C-alpha cells in the first residue's frame, strides 16, 4: 500500500516484496443416486510473513469449508 493510499484508507503504508503461500486441501464426493451427489471441501492457506505483516491482514492462516449438492442431467 503506497503512502498516498494509506493516508486515504487509514492503514499504515506497506510495500512488500514477493512471497509464496502454501496451502493444503481435501475434497470428498459422495454419490447419493445416479443423478445426485454431494461434496465437501476443506482448505487451509498459510500466508507468508511478507503478506501477514500487512496492516490489512489480521491472521497468517485462512481456512475455508465448502459443501454442495450436484445434479447430473
Automatic annotation (TrEMBL):
Q: Ranges of Polar residues compositional bias?
A: 1-11
Principal cellular location given in the protein's record: membrane
**Which stretches does the entry tag as region Disordered?**
1-22
Among the record's GO biological process terms, what is one? peptidoglycan biosynthetic process
The family annotation for this protein states: Belongs to the MipA/OmpV family.
**GO CC annotation terms, alphabetical:** cell outer membrane
Q: What are the protein's UniProt keywords? A: Cell outer membrane, Membrane, Signal
InterPro entries cross-referenced by the UniProt entry = MipA
Cellular localization per UniProt? Cell outer membrane
Q: Which protein, by its recorded name, is this? A: MipA/OmpV family protein
